[in-house]
Amino acid sequence: MFKKLQCLAIYTKDLESSIIFYEKMGLVKKWEVEQIPGKPWKLVGMGFGEGHAELVLKNNPELNFIEPEIIVEDVSAFYEQWKDEPSIQWIRTPFSNSLGGHVAIMEAPDGNVFVLIGK
């Protein structure tokens, strides 16, 4: 089951300018990682002070859409439970991420894409 919205990933053509803008809006840069090893695309986590949600900036032009991240308890177990559901399209099956834990990416029947994160 979905537990909570973790972050919202948005596309930006100019990552550095966006970081400066969102810092001016009160967000704090919390982390930065390569999205795909060997490629120039990055993910940058921008925190909302005391809150737990993040705004994630990304500069990969092939992924220029919003990606809501949803926490699930166990990504692989969630996938196993729902992998045969015909209304769900699995864009990426569970994989380890560079921040620890696991990730899977699904498209819901309404066309919305969700990034599932957890153990």
TrEMBL record:
This is Glyoxalase/bleomycin resistance/dioxygenase family protein. Residues 4-119 form the VOC domain. It comes from the Bacteria.
